[in-house]
Structure formats: structure tokens, C-alpha cells
């Protein structure tokens, strides 16, 4: 629970003055007004993985919080190894107040280590009103709500240059087999089919998860995510074999596998939407649109568009999601102000700031869809909200960080090795199981 102030401003009164957005009693939102600056002199330190345009746009949200409350904010980018960086800061007595956690497994790890403050009743009430149960479950550990999912991702989208597909004479494919066929036709026209960000191992886990969810089905997906079945299961080998068909075809991957392994995520978007395109398509989440728009000036829906990740074989089209959860650390120097930031982040007002900037989806069902700047993003956000509890969260993000969320280790490293040489799916499955068993402790 958030500790009471030692001044006369206690409990609900303090939070109302801090946010100027919530009434006491029933907890219904009221007009925000100009803010009462009740957190003047407080500094909220925030750590998260974002950099580049994502960090810039999140800073706009933090600036809006400052304008409302008077609190100063400091954002520190952790890079991909958020658990390691945050752990070292806690040990060094320099814990941030708030962490934007990008993996369910890391949130669980932090909670079990006793690092997190449960969200106070005020924040819980806002979350229950504005978020579907699936997002509350992802933010909870053993029934206690610790995390607020501020930013979501729709990770079943394939982004493409409409001009490139038109020149090749192909249309967005409806099946995975048709995707490969269309890719080879694009290659024959002079561009590679896909830009693959193999330098960032998380993109490869996303490729695998979409193939696996569609091919193996949701029950197997849930079982593998919980390590209730082994990674040597035939369903895993089958999915790796399917993915390997794409990776091993040099016509399909821009620069071939070797160049893909030195291409990071922003670079993969540049290969499709930059000034000198090398590829027609890039698979990744909806956040591709933010990079295409902010860094390369693309008009979303005209210069850049997407189609749903197509179903594999007889399976259904996958809907894989991800997200970043805000949590408050026990050891933060301004944990009370940090909790006030989370209450602000739980409002549609906060989500609208980034939605208007672009490159963002919110799981907040109360956010006005008109806040999104284009029809494509609006449609993507709607499909994620409408999917409700049928969405499957990114599998690697549910795993212990040592397996599913650490650069150069576990699933990230093993799938990079698979991209380098996709000839032996059984061997890759065995390596994945060995790493998983160690990380899960079973």
C-alpha cells in the first residue's frame, strides 16, 4: 500500500491534489483541471527499456504528469537487460521509483524477490475500471496486483510497402504458404521479401511464437509457455522446421542470414521504409508504424501498411500480444510519488498523450479511439481490445528472464544460432529445452 503523507494531506485527499483527476468515494473520474502541483519538489525516477522515438514519446507522457502534479521525472534507459540493471541499482542503493517492465516473467521475478509494492486501492480501482481482466491477470502475482500495463503491442502484424508489393504484382497473403510464395515473387522483382532483425533476439522469439500459436494451437502454447511440456515436443520441432523454411531461403531474407544477424530492429524497419529500401516486408509488432512515421516520414496507411500474420497450415490466425507494465519498487526514494505516477498512467488521459504522438497501442479500453492519429493504428488497437481474453501474451515474456529476456542467453541466443544455421530443428529444440529446464528449475 502507498504510505500516507506525514503532512495534513493524507489518503485520498493527497492523491486528488496530486493528480487533480479523481474523486474520492466512488472513484469516478472528474475534470482534470490544471493540476494542483501537490508533488512540487518530488522527483520520480523511472527506468525502462525504451530508447529513440519510444523514449521521446514516453517523455511526453512524463512531461504531462509533471505539468499536472509538479513532480520532476527522470527516465533512464536500461537496454534489454532490465532485470540485471534494476537488480544492480537496488543492490547499490540507487533503486528507481518506477520500472516499466517488458516481460511478465520479469514482473513475477521482481515480485517474488520482494522488490515491488502492491498497487494501492486507488490505483487498483482505476485499473479495474479501465482494463480488461486479461491485463489485470498479467500484472498480478499470486492474486496481488503489482503491475499496470500502460503500453501494449499487437505482435501479429506484417508491415509492408504497398508500392513494393504493387510493383511485384502481389497482394497481402492469407496463408503462411502464400506468404512465402509472395515473398519469392517479390524477390524475383528485385527486392528481398523480408527484413529480419536477427541482432535483436526478441524479434526471433516473436517469429517463432506466431508460427507456434497458429500451428500448435492455444492449449499447446499455454503449456509450453508454462514449461508444462518440453521444448523437445514434436510441436516445437515442427514450428522450427516451418520457420526454418523461411530463414534458409536466401531469396527471402534481405542480405541473407549473415546480414540479418547484424540488423537490429530499427535497422530492419529502415530496410523497408528508409530512403534506400532493400526489402518489401518486415514482420514485427504495431510499433513498426512509429519508427516508419517518426524516422522515415511515412504516411501510415499509404506509404506503410500491414496485414495480419497469416495462419499456418490448418491453424487459426495468431494474435500474440506484449506490453510494458509499470511497477513501483519498495526501495525507491519517492515511492509515494511513484504510485501517483501509476494512477496517472492508468487514465485514458495519459494514454492519449502517446496515442496522439504515434507508435503506441493502449490496453486501456476507455481510451477514445480518436486519439490515434491514423486509421491503421486505430484499427490495430480496436482488434487488440476486441480480442479480449483470447489474446496470448508473448511467450518469451512469460518466461524467466534468464531464458526469455536476456541478450546473448537462453531463447534469444539459441534462436539467433538457429537463424545462422536452420538446418537442424531437433538440435535447436534440445538446446532450448536444456536452457528452459535450467531457468525454470525443472
Automatic annotation (TrEMBL):
PROSITE patterns named among the record's database cross-references: PROKAR_LIPOPROTEIN
Alphabetically ordered keywords of this record: Signal, Transport
Compositional bias per record (Basic and acidic residues), positions renumbered to this chain: 422-436
Organism: Streptomyces prasinopilosus
Protein name: Alpha-glucoside transport system substrate-binding protein
Region (Disordered): 422-442
The organism's place on the tree of life at top rank: Bacteria
Family under the similarity heading: Belongs to the bacterial solute-binding protein 1 family.
Signal peptide region: 1-23
SUPFAM superfamilies: Periplasmic binding protein-like II (SSF53850)
Amino acid at each position: 500500500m502507498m504510505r500516507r503523507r506525514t503532512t495534513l494531506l493524507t489518503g485520498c485527499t493527497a492523491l486528488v491534489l496530486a493528480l487533480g483527476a479523481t474523486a474520492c468515494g466512488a472513484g469516478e473520474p472528474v475534470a482534470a483541471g490544471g493540476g494542483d502541483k501537490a508533488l512540487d519538489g518530488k522527483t520520480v525516477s523511472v527506468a525502462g527499456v525504451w530508447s529513440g522515438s519510444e523514449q521521446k514519446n514516453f517523455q511526453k507522457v512524463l512531461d504531462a504528469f509533471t505539468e499536472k502534479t509538479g513532480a520532476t521525472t527522470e527516465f533512464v534507459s536500461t537496454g534489454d537487460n532490465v532485470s540485471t540493471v534494476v537488480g544492480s541499482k537496488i543492490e547499490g542503493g540507487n533503486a528507481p521509483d518506477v520500472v516499466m517492465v517488458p516481460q511478465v516473467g520479469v514482473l513475477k521475478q521482481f515480485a517474488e524477490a520482494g522488490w515491488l509494492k502492491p498497487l494501492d486501492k486507488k490505483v487498483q480501482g482505476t485499473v479495474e475500471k479501465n482494463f480488461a481482466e486479461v491485463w489485470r491477470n498479467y500484472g498480478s502475482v499470486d492474486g496481488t496486483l503489482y503491475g499496470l500495463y500502460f503500453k501494449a503491442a499487437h505482435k501479429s502484424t506484417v508491415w509492408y510497402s504497398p508500392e513494393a508489393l504493387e510493383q511485384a504484382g502481389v497482394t497481402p497473403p492469407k496463408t503462411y504458404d502464400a506468404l512465402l510464395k509472395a515473398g519469392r515473387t517479390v524477390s524475383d522483382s528485385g527486392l528481398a521479401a523480408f527484413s529480419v532483425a536477427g541482432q535483436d533476439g526478441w524479434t526471433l522469439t516473436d517469429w517463432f511464437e506466431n508460427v507456434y500459436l497458429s500451428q500448435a494451437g492455444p492449449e499447446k502454447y499455454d503449456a509450453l509457455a508454462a514449461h508444462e511440456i518440453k521444448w523437445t515436443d514434436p510441436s516445437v520441432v515442427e514450428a522450427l522446421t516451418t520457420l526454418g523454411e523461411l530463414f534458409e531461403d536466401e531469396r527471402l531474407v534481405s542480405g541473407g542470414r549473415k546480414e540479418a544477424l547484424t540488423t537490429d530492429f530499427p535497422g530492419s524497419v529502415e530496410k523497408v521504409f528508409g530512403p534506400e529500401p532493400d526489402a518489401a516486408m518486415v514482420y514485427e509488432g504495431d510499433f513498426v508504424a512509429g519508427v516508419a512515421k517518426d524516422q522515415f516520414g511515412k504516411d501510415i496507411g499509404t506509404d506503410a501498411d500491414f496485414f495480419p500474420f497469416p495462419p499456418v497450415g490448418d491453424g487459426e490466425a495468431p494474435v500474440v500480444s506484449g506490453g510494458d507494465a509499470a511497477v513501483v519498487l519498495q526501495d525507491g526514494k519517492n515511492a509515494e510519488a511513484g504510485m501517483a505516477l501509476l494512477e496517472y498512467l492508468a487514465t485514458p488521459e495519459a494514454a492519449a498523450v502517446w496515442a496522439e504522438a504515434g507508435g503506441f497501442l493502449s490496453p486501456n479500453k476507455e481510451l477514445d479511439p480518436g486519439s490515434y492519429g491514423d486509421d491503421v493504428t486505430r484499427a490495430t488497437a480496436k482488434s487488440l481490445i476486441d480480442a479480449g481474453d483470447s489474446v496470448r501474451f508473448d511467450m518469451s515474456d512469460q518466461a524467466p528472464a534468464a531464458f526469455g529476456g536476456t541478450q546473448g542467453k537462453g531463447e534469444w541466443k539459441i534462436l539467433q544460432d538457429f537463424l545462422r544455421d536452420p538446418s537442424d530443428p531437433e538440435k535447436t529444440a534440445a538446446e532450448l529445452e536444456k536452457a528452459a529446464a535450467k531457468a525454470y528449475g525443472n
